[in-house]
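Help wanted!
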Amino acid sequence: MINKNKIKRNWKIFWLFSKFALKTTFQTRWGVAFFIGGKLMRFFFLLGFLFLVFSKTKSLYGYSFQEAAIFFMTFNLIDNAAQFLFREVYRFRPLITSGGFDLVLIKPYHPFLRILLGGVDYMDLLTLVLYLLITLYFAFQLPYLSFINLLLYLLLLTNGLIIATAFHVIVLALGILITSVDHTIMIYRDITSIGRFPLDIYREPIRFVFTFVFPIALMMNLPAQVLIGKFNWELVVVAIVFAFGLLGFSMLLWKKAVKHYQSWGG
Amino acid sequence: MNKYLTIFNVTIKEYFAYRLSFVLWRFRTLINLIVIFFFWFAVSAKYTNFAGYSQPALLSYILYASLISDFVIGTRLGDIAAEINNGNIINIILKPIGFFNYYFARDLADKFINIVFSFGEILIVAYIARISLSTPQNLILFVLFFLCGLMISYYMNLIIAFLGFWTTESWAPRFIFTILISLLSGNFFPLDMLPKTLYQIALLTPIPYLFFLPTKIILGRIDNYLILEAMMAFFWLLISRSIAHFIWKKGNKSFSFWGR
Amino acid sequence: MISVKNLTKTYLVHKKQNNLLKDIFFRQYKKVVALDDISFDIRDNELVGFIGPNGAGKTTTLKILSGILYPTSGNINILGYIPFSKNPEFLKQIAFVAGQRNQLIWDLPASDSFKLNQEIYEINEQEYKKNVADLAEILNCLKMIDKPVKTLSLGERMKMELIAALLHRPKLVFLDEPTIGLDLFSQQNIRHFLKTYQQKYQATIILTSHYMEDVKALAKRVIIINHGKIIYNDQLKNIIEKYSSEKIIKITLDDNCDEKNLTLKEKPFFYSFPEIIYKVDKKTLPEKIKMITETLPFSDLTVEDKPIEEVIKEMFRKS
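Answered by r_m:
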């Protein structure tokens, strides 16, 4: 009974935060138009670029254009979903330096409702829907598409999102622990951007680093591999275990950060 | 002259005040370079001629373009909009320093840091990939086009920055501008890989003159339209300069800001 | 209500060694003691002022009591809870208001932020409406509730912050420099509001401020902190009795007194015709007064205590 009420209340608070975030967004209509325009421009350009590359070569390391496009779309789905949910993480450092974070810690709800999920970005929801449709378009062009693969694909997309969540929590924790760096979230974006294309086209030192040191392959590539039917089951298990492990680690890191929080000003 | 040297030095010191932040910034630049470079490495590995480029030529292009673009595109002019919005720009306008010269000195410092570290990053990548880079050619011609591109980039950045005089939302057009430049100016792929018509249309815009053409020239890949390209480069230089000065004059008159 | 025993807070600050590699991988730290083994109690319905110079530890104390910062050692018990555990039931009974820091959403009307707090603190609709109305009435700012926060002046914004913070009728209110940066009129408004609020709702209020006017107007009891230690913990009015050994005699000389013929037996602290000011040790006060009345033609004479600000300044200097 108690837990049900707690969930209901947290949902209500989340809903209010996102409603107000939307209201704030609409105050800058031109900004919204430009922002969405810019993102779409980048997306269509990269897709066109992929097409351009494939116009000069029939297949790339055994991948057809449709298959490479699936990799590209998978990246965009996970990346965009993460930006949709966690846009507030980009505003965390200014919140700390202005002293506003103190006023968040004092409230009787989990700070993540505010600093992780408090700035849901509806502009990204629009692009997310578009990406979903384009992904389906390419998916239906695949020669072998089974229902099980599609289901597994959705599962691994969620898994990729869980990894993204863990990374964002780590960024928040580092935002408290390391006071001299403001752009940690952009480092995350740069590192994950290698997941736009299949990682096995890269040479060895790169491939190793981005599979084991920064497990982008598990996060971004694996769902695509599953959808096009070129994967092995062990990796799926590894990916899920890794995701929850990373999530647990990020929570511990966050707890440590709150203890070490030294506040600002005063 | 000394004032500007001091501004230059102070700007450089600012970078090193937060060392971890600086190191991570260069790390980000290196990662971005690696992502693009090894993508092309993989793609061109199987072909002796990919859209007119051999593998060493293509990879040399990516590295040279990265070096030159870091110098040409790197700018502190983004600060202007923020300083207009929070009113700090008054301090600069009231000091006995030329406004344009002040920001030029800051920009030079930023470009200097960029090129010094970019150079190191390029060597790292070239070493990992074990490729041999093309040797620079046509140096005089290169310098001419390079300086032209540098100034066009500077004035274009100024124009975007001055939007801060009219709106608090100048981040939006700057966002679009940055995306356009990062995608289309040539550090993603050599512009002459585009289908012929698209390439020719691109040559009518100022974008290829920023650093793509200078890079082509230094790599020794001069085409038949050199004279036309030189004229277009100069044309865009004049246009961007006039627009920047015009907007500056108008902006100064309609300027207002909020206190906090 | 509040019991603090042996509270200590130390920070580790990293020493810059001016060497890039060492600064990242082989950091050296030095300990900074912000609070040094302090203890105090605060009862229900008290209004206590924390005074101290910058960096003394006042704000650190407030932030530890409210659960924001983690104490290095010591026992803190507030309403039966340990603050840092941030038990929601504890958090629902406290409020933290800091001058020049916003909890309100910048681009939207304050009423939107109020609704958010209503949900967060689980206040039912009837009570919510009543609380907002009551607070807005005392602060006289009902019209501003629906204007975007960014369009309000600093003083008006502070009023909105107070409503947002007190909406849930907290039993314990922390105020960190609430009047800083405000014009005199707004400062008076806020002080009046806080006094009224405390009397009406029987809340415990802990306040830090650099403005002695705030403390004098509101707090009966003060805790003075310097260098992380408590140097005074008692009624405000007792400071003069305990710590001031001097009295101030202000003399206004008679109009028809001839300046040139005037000889002062003793050198005064301040002399600009016709005003003279003497600073006199309490013990020698009677004889000084005698001397003045016998030798100086004055039209007005007052004996005052040293301003409390000066007494406190001296306490800081000594400690």
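OP: Thanks! One thing I noticed: Chain C touches chain B through three residues (CB under 8 Å).
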